[in-house]
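Handout, section 4.2: multi-component inputs.
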Amino acid sequence: MKTSRLSLTINGARRTIETPPMKRLLDVLREDFQLTGTKEGCGEGECGACSVILDGVLVNSCLVPALHAAGANVRTIEGLSPGGSHPVQAAFARCGGAQCGICTPGMIMASVHLLERNPHPSRLEIQEALAGNLCRCTGYQKIIDAVQAASEGDEIADL
Amino acid sequence: MEPHVVGLPVRRKEVVGKITGAAKYIDDVQLPGMLHGVTIRSTIPRGKLLNISFLPGVPWDEFTIVTAADIPGSNVVSQIHDDQPMLARDMVNHPHEPVLLLAHENKDQLRCARELVHIEYEPLPAVLDMDEALEQRTIIWGQDNVFKQYLINKGDVDSVWAEAARIIEGEYSTEAQEHVYIEPNGMLATVSPSECVTVSGSLQCPYYVHKALTTLFNLPSHKVRVIQTETGGAFGGKEEYPSIIAGHAALLAWKSGRPVKIVYDREEDMVATTKRHPSRTRHRTAVSEDGRLLAMDIEFTIDGGAYSTLSPVVLSRGTIHAAGPYRCPNVRVRSTAVATNAPPHGAFRGFGAPQSLFAVERHMDRIAYTIGLTPDEFRRRNFLRSGDATATGQIITQPLDLPGLQERALRSAGYYKKLETFRANSASALKRGMGFATFMHGAGFTGSGERHLASVVELEGTAGGNVRILCSMTEMGQGTNTILTQIAAEALGIAYEQVEICPPDTALVPNSGPTVASRTSMIVGKLIEQAAGEFKKRLWSDDELPADYSPGQFSAKLRDYQSVCGPLRTRAQYHEPAGIHWDDEHYRGDAYGAFSWATYVAEVTVDTITGEVQVDEFTALQEVGRVINPVLAAGQIEGGIVQGLGFALLEKVTWNQGSMANNQLTNYIIPTAMDVPPIKVLFEEIPYEYGASGAKGIGELPMDGPAPAILNAVVNALGIAFDHVPLTPEDILSKLSQNGKHAHDAPEVVETIA
Ligand code: FES
Ligand code: FES
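Output:
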């Protein structure tokens, strides 16, 4: 299969790989960089388990071909705190926002994305911001609580 | 001693891995030399397998190919009956039945190869719904298309009809529901030269998979090892089907000599694996002049799909819950699980109870309206009380105050006031309504199930002076790790952090039974308490058990003990509490060690222009014994309610020739953050003597109440009866247009004045 050279910044580090240009960004992250915190729940842009922040935009990485990420700045769950101390991570832990955990990295990225542009969202704004991320365990209430708690706590560190 | 670990909102034991992305699910695991496996499936509902051919286009010699002929042991998925093959032999009995397996190291090659396997069939007539199955024109299973039947017969219903003031009938139905755990199924198998089969993956019940593999390979149990990896949701959906995927991966590994991983994509997971059993319930009820239940005659039928799998036990739970939490001297429940040529339906949170409870709780509202009592008053007159007997003759021995529970729920939902306000403002196109359901859920296996399981747990001291729990209960999001750790820490008098929990691995942990049936806290937790008691006794065997000790003193004592006497390990096994009797033969007696009880209240707005229903607020009050972790418990309730909301209003499987046609998240719709109302979760805590720290079951209960509560609210808003879930906007619009008038004289309501 034809490959091309791709450079991008992942969680602040500049990286270069040879990859088929149409390979999904999700697979590039998971297979080429072993960043398996980004999950696949559907592969069709419906569940948000694969959410990452690409040049400041929240995207479903299962729908993004590698070539679209050329030169881009990609943030994944691994770029927050490895110990889980980022305020949004900590709020998810405290409020019960993670149950089975499979939606959690995507949910946290979507929440971080929201809070960085709207530090004090209303309940409705949180619901809207997370509407593209499915969770089958929590019923969303504790996730909404976590985002609210994070918004009331410390500043959201911009990484 | 650490006095209070139970009752505290301690953090989830494995939370750090989950919030950092470090937790490893099976899709995240790679092994050197690993192949990927795929399943080739039938494309017709029923027929003879004539021929399999491999069309040119890929280098077939590079592929590992497995058919039924390669199976070293028995070609069955070992469960209750052994009627389901691991790979189809000469017949296929449902669409998407596994026929053949392929493995290759390159996923793209596999994708091409998949399209190049050609299977020829001789199609046979198929049975596609419950009525066709019952008509028995085509027999597809056994002699009569019937997997199982039960009969509950209390008193004599037929002696009552003549004298009843009113007889009210109703028919209720529910459709299939897909689990949609966000992590699709997956398994990784390795086969070592010494012929040991090891499988790890996303699963609920390690010992179910273990049994299936020993049968499939005809191996002694010590040669099969099953390990659970982090599991991204299950809800019953990873109770039985993982045995099949594990078998397939292991067969490919066996034949290729390489590790093989099978991970389903979403479409395959939705189309091929189990769903909630579709159901139909018919009620005929005799009521006295003063609104008391005289007789309940109930017919409950579920569609089991093509093989029996767990249908007999799902049917059993549905049957036992069919008469609801009501006292009635004469009850007959006749229930049947039938075969159709669809993929087998299976375990799903609630396990038959959400279906039959939906029916009875809609029916109670229908009776109330028909006889002119309010739904709350009618129920109040008929609730079970302590000392009463249920339909199976189980005497309620625990304290029970359902009128009080219901009243508290209704008041905290603002039910009475809102009913009035909504009635006064009923002129608008947006109709608002209130509805509720009062119900119960039996915790633990039904009937003699727990006695037969005879579950075991162990505790062992670690070198560092901590205590490790060894049990086969799996964490799939519901909080097993945390809850069992809290129970152990409390019983040992040590800190939460001093208790470790061994990952479920059949080489390391005893069989504590499956992680199903709301049994983890109540049954297995209790065993952990017993093992903890024994642990303390052994630790202080030469001295008095001190009245108080610090966590540090405990660890020091444990280290000292182990340096002299070697590892300290204690064990506990389930024995039925005295006074619990179940008679399998007559299907009577104490069906469950304990029931949890609840009233759920829904407030809805129905848009009569679009037919859309919005749930504006939801109140859930439950009595589940003692609450071990308030945050986790509320999380279970909220999650269950939202699944129930999906079941009630959104989740509709479209069938085509026995196959799910909308097997994508684009057209099978589950609730999003936008769909959920504020949910008020309340607990009434009455400690249960035989449950760990007083806990009863909690996980399934919240699935039972939302559908009837929401439909009752819609009926209240519109004055039109709806008796089927999911209730879609189309259903609402079509009834609105044909029937502007009153619900409660809808044709299916029969009233007889004796
Ligand atoms: S995996 Fe990308 S949206 Fe579901
Ligand atoms: S925590 Fe399981 S899907 Fe969200």
